[in-house]
Amino acid sequence: xxxxxxxxxxxxxxxxxxxxxxxxxxxxxxxxxxxxxxxxxxxxxxxxxxxxxxxxxxxxxxxxxxxxxxxxxxxxxxxxxxxxxxxxxxxxxxxxxxxxxxxxxxxxxxxxxxxxxxxxxxxxxxxxxxxxxxxxxxxxxxxxxxxxxxxx
Length: 152
What we know:
There is one protein chain. The chain contains 6 helices and no strands. With 152 residues, the chain is an all-alpha fold. It has one domain (8-150). Helix 4 packs across helix 5 and helix 5 (102-118) packs across helix 6 (125-150). The longest helix has 26 residues, at 125-150.
């Protein structure tokens, strides 16, 4: 399984992808121990029809806490957020959960774009710019998370 410490944003996206895969193809878990463990967790947590594993929710919460800390303490990070905020607000307003956090919105955006690319659907140039900015933000968050975890 992807390592949370190595890249927490990729870890969350990976868990989301596993959840979707196992919802679509639950029988595939029988041939893979990791998939079987994830499917068992999904059953135990009652999310086989939708939602996210507690592992993913906890990691997201950790990332959101770090985000809040950085927005308050790091001017360059805050500047990136100020630049990205209008696009994130617009994106969130078009979802069924406009109250989601900025970090979750970045992750949802990247996940949805990944799904669109898998379907060979076109991504608008405007969306590509927002994806680039969201990726930059998540990359910085993940690196800071990694640096904090490896110095503890």
